[in-house]
Amino acid sequence: MFKSNLTITLRNLLSNPIFSVIHILGLSIGLSASLMVYQIVRYEMTFDQFEKDAERIYRVVFDVKNRDMEMHGVAVPAPMGLAIESEVTGVETSVPVRQFQGDATTNVMIPGEGRSAPTVFTKQPGIIFTTDGYFDIVPFKFLAGTSTLALREPFGVVLTESRARLYFPGLNPVNVIGKRISYDENIEVLVTGVTADLNEHTDFTSQEFISYSTISKTSLQKNFMMESWGEMMSASKLYLKLKPGSTAADIEKQIAALMLKNKEPQDDRPITFRLQPLKDIHFKKLYQATADKNVLYGLLAIAAFLLLLGCINFINLSTAQATRRMKETCIRKTIGSSRKQLIIQFLGETFLITVLALFLSIGFIPLLMDLFSGFTPEGLKVELFQDPWFPVYITCLVIFVSFLSGFYPAFVISRYRPIAILRSQSYRSHTRGVFLRRTLTVAQFVIAQFFVIAAAIVVRQIHFSLHEDMGFRRQAIITVQAPQKHDTLSEQRRVEFYNPFQVFRGSR
Question: What's the predicted TM-score (pTM) here?
Answer without folding.
Answer: 0.77
